[in-house]
Fold this sequence. Notes:
The structure holds 3 protein chains of 3 kinds. By secondary structure, chain A is mainly alpha-helical. Helix content of chain A is about 65%, strand content about 5%.
Amino acid sequence: MSLIDSTHTNLLEKMMDVYTLRNKITAANVANIDTPGYNKASVKFEEQLAQKLESGQISSGAVKNMNPSIEVGDQKPILEDELMEMADTQIRVQLAARALRHNFDQIRSGISGRTG
Amino acid sequence: MDRLFSVFQTSGQGLAVQRRQVQIASENLANAETTRAGGETYKPKRLDLTQPAGDNFRIALQNSTLKMQNSNSRHIPELGSNHFSPETQGLGPEARAVEESRYRYEYDPAHPDSDANGMVKYPDVDLIEETTRLVSANRLYEANLSVIEAEKEIIKKSFEI
Amino acid sequence: MAIDPISIQSIREIPFSEVRPESERFSLGPDDKSFADMIKGAINSVDEMQKVTEGGVEDILAGKAENIHEVMIDMQKSQLSFQLMVEVRNRAVETYQELSRMQI
């Protein structure tokens, strides 16, 4: 039912998926910094999302069909960049988790008729 | 290690590699002048690293994208099956210690291990290279630790949903 | 962000016709069967949601999955579906009682 399972929550869930993947790839980059032949990999998604948002409202279906992709560059990983990426991801995860909590709390208030 | 969340496996592999680098650098440094190790001159060691299997990246990508079908509460997948195949090998490198027959020679006829020409065979250990390796390995070890911390934090945040 | 904002409106104010599952059309009139069917439908979907959530947790515990955030989200949705079902049931019972009173 779209009240509990809205486009908004679908998007937040999708972002959590992206962040989880991104952290796995960051871990791989750090573990492989000195591995010969290993080039930095990164997870792409935000550009796709920004594009879709620009063209107007997005639907649940559109969200479900958007997927992250892994792009391998032509440079070795740089430690500082990976550490920054991790910090960035942590912050975004917090935001998504808070937003989801907020969303569910609000629906709960609506169902019970109570605001406390 | 197989039972751990894959991110911890990856970082665990990273930690193991750096720890071995430290071991190897220490051993090479300690034996820079060893002419007699089991009857032979010490052979410098190094760590050969190979990349994680390319397939594991694909599996990681797949795992992150497939489950959205479950979010419709009317769609029941078979209980316990969501086609997730954990990339249980982690995405870290594999390491193999390798001995190198690299030597350098010094003229020292007074040395007990000098040969007929008065030359002594020493392992070709570059002190600067090994020290650098030591320092770098320590730094990268710390880096892998902080990745583990970050992942823990991310998982903890999930519990606050 | 151009995404449907969550309506802050209390569920109680949403017309009953918009709240229950679309496959169960509820026709006005003291028709016990359609009330029961509707409630059954709501219970089934809550039950399904529950199973999905439990399955999700079990998969993680058994090492077959790692999607903790997804399971946490399912838990919330599952709890909300349940609460919603309870409220719907309460509304339905109240409505039925009112209608019964009217006939007398």
